[in-house]
Structure of Deoxyribose-phosphate aldolase:
Amino acid sequence: MTRVDVSELVRIRTHHPEAIAEAAARRARRPLLRPGGRLMIVAADHPARGALAVGNRRLAMANRADLLERLCLALSRPGVDGVLATADILDDLLLLGALEDRVVVGSMNRGGLAGAAFELDDRFTGHRAEDVARLGFDAGKLLLRVDYEDPRSADTLLSAARAVDAMAQRRLPVFVEPFICHRRDGRLGTDLTAEAVTRSIAIASGLGGTSAYTWLKLPVTENPGDMARVMETSTLPAVLLGGEIGDDQEGTYEKWREALRLPTVQGLVVGRSLLYPVDGDVAAAVDTAVGLL
């Protein structure tokens, strides 16, 4: 992996903070999708929600230099299109020169901190539409978790709709990641049954005054055989989110492979399972995911 010089990043941030905007301004850009291509995006927006765990390693993502090195390696692999992250990580990657000719997706709402009593209050504490436009980034992403028994979900729905409007006004794509959620024993969990994912797609697709720039970021249902029927709910382009692979790595890859054959599915957005694979081989994990496309 490329070694990250933390001292140099701190020096630039301390003495030349304007260097971040300058790096964004001169960054070589590319289309979101190349002709005939599909998207392979590496996700790294988990830390801003306090979600630092990978498997049984509770603070695996807490070492920023290590995370940046893993991201730089992943972004250097053939077939990787770009990265999804919050401002702090994207600023570091800009200074490292790792975002040239890559798709850059700003993460917009990180206020629903993992494990907090207010976790479903997914406030927009990250990139705003104006930030994505100002920095010349290529898209935004928002999380939409809905619990029918939690009144705060209504606030999240409204905020998400206004974010969709703000992105569409600037002709910027926005990836909406919807889930139907439930609390059990005080812990928030996502419902991946076919009916729940179908409802989440229907809700997300109708946000805002236009869906022209809306993409969906969706999980594979708990029964992968349901995906074809579930994806009939919308004509919006979609990408699959990765999540935790667990012990059955080959089984997970097969689920992705099958879902990627569906007409609305345009690619993958995968994070921890590629950046922190069980065997430690980031390049091999990324290459395997790219091969599924």
Observations:
- The chain has a mean pLDDT of 94.
